[in-house]
Amino acid sequence: MQDVTIIGAGLAGSEAALQLAKRGIKVKLYEMRPNKTTGAHVTGDCAEFVCSNSLGSSDVTNASGLLKKEMEILGGELIKIAYENSVPAGNALAIAREDFSNAVTKRIEEDSNIEIIREEVTEIPDGNVIIASGPLTSDKFAEAIQNFTESEHLHFFDAIAPIVDVDSINFDKAFWASRYDKGEASYINCPMNKEEYEKFYNILINAPRIEQHSVDKDSKYFESCLPIEVLASRGVDTLRFGPMKPVGLVDKRTGIENYAVVQLRQDNSAKTLFNLVGFQTNLKWGAQKELLHSIPGLEEANIVRYGVMHRNTFINSSQILNQTLETRKREGLFFAGQITGTEGYTESIATGMLAGINMARKLMGEQMLELPRETMLGALTFYITDKAHLKHISSRDNSVRYLPPQPINSNWGILAPLEKHLPKKNKKLKNELLSKRSLETLENFVSELTGFKK
Question: What letter would DSSP give residue 355?
Answer without folding.
Answer: H
